[in-house]
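Can anyone check this?
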Amino acid sequence: MSKQSILIIEDDLDIAELLQYNLQKDGYPVRTSRDGESGLHAARKFKPDLILLDLMMPGMDGLEVCRHLKRDPGTASIPLMMITAKDAESDVVLGLELGADDYVSKPFSPREVLARVRAILRRGTKPAESGKSRVEAGPLVLDRERHEARVSEELVDVTRAEFRLLWALVSQPGRVFARDELVEYITAGEALIGDRNVDVHISALRKKLGAHGDLIQTVRGVGYKCRDY
């Protein structure tokens, strides 16, 4: 069976070639685009299984590309991993809010990128987990069969990684989860990612939950928990 296809949208030729070489070496069919507009066109035309998207590009930047992709029913379900500049936390949070699945910061190692690519693609084909299909914490309701999060009956747009993280916390209210535990929930044990990714997802979720962002509480020096109702 052939591997899933990948589209790289990256204006830096050296980085694009580095990514393309290592992904193709691992067996993935790869296409590349050097700017946001051509990348958006390629995504709509070829429907790749994963998009690697640089956020800092001239013209249409990565965040705008992400907005277009997630608003288009034909591309909204395509997993997306952002390639970001170091210390660009605000852009990372916004990208996750827009629907990106993960991010990697420059400079990165090809092994790290490959591990995350494999994890995202495996998550996309993983069957639904067994057990409860609905959990609640005050006004927050999670429905796993529908993959929906609602606050006071209003739909909240969450990514797959955010939904997994929320499900872990809400299904065991009051329990404190260490960051490395939450990494396991986000990736389903399929890749190693940094604890910092958890913090970024938590930050994005709190913003999306608005006035109810305090449902997710920080336990200093340990991790996070869902407030016990």
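Reply from J.R.: I decoded it. Residues 110-125 form the longest helix (16 residues).
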